[in-house]
Amino acid sequence: MRNMISNIDNIIEFIKRSNDFVVTSHISPDGDNIGSTLGIYYSLKKLGKNVYYVLDDNAPLNLRFLVENVTKMSSSDFKALNIENYNLIALDCGDKSRVCVTKEIKEEAVKIICIDHHASNDSYGDLNYIDVEASSTSELVYNLLVRLNKLDNTNIIDEDIATALYTGLVTDTGNFSYSSTHPSSFEMAKELMILGAKRDKIIQSVFQSNSYNYYKLLGEALNTLDIVHGKVACISLTIDMLQRNNMSFNDVDGITTYTRDIENVEVGILLKQKKDNEVKVSLRSKNYVNVSKIAQTFNGGGHIRAAGCTIYDTVENAKVKILQEVLKEI
What we know:
The protein is an alpha/beta fold. Helix content is about 45%, strand content about 20%. The chain has 2 domains: about 1-205, inorganic pyrophosphatase (n-terminal core); about 215-330, Diaminopimelate Epimerase, Chain A, domain 1 (Roll).
């Protein structure tokens, strides 16, 4: 715990001494990705820093309410500004290669600060705050801001920051249903609501606003449901299915839960085709299978109960390959 506080204090002191920051996260944005990034973005703004939100990907439809009033830049947009001596803050990204900016932006940063909760993280930052027990990276950002308040009597959490962090918390805990939920998660939720988090807006946008096309795609996806040995469930989504239902690649990760939430199933798998020979695989488990270990077999990573990887092959072959590895663990 002492080490963790020291890491937080080092990051706070570095932020105080520095002026220019790029904040970013991993490819295929999710709630904790965007929530933690915007939590830091708004906080740095309030501290008088120059801060740029750079991400070479788009927010899913159900999370776009968070970025409505934020200028999100591409890597090329940022490079055109010719900013020198900037620092990069990478949030919720366990692998430097998955940080969603160009290699050039990563390499030219004076320092990289990594704030993350993935077990597969190898501490690639110059400054790291990594806690694999945390419910979400948003919880780590919250801890950092609470520590800042304790050190400097500077409570900067306002409605925007509270809303961003609450979104990250509820999405990464499955609205407090996953095993990553701890008593500290509920304490954080309580404090963020007191500080103005728009809970109703978050719940409605994230969990209660799927489009008609989403449900048409879901119906088609469920027709591919395959249960293997009663313990593994698998669903496949192809490019044709996405196009036929006018859905984008980043808007359908919620379908993964339909594989896990079946009686007696231990591991759920969603195969989502991105290109002809590129398939994103999302893995979820209930009780005992470490899906992060399985994902690492394919250079992926994540958490014990939720992880992912990319397999460069057809959907059919990707399914065979991932099932081979999953069945070894069942």
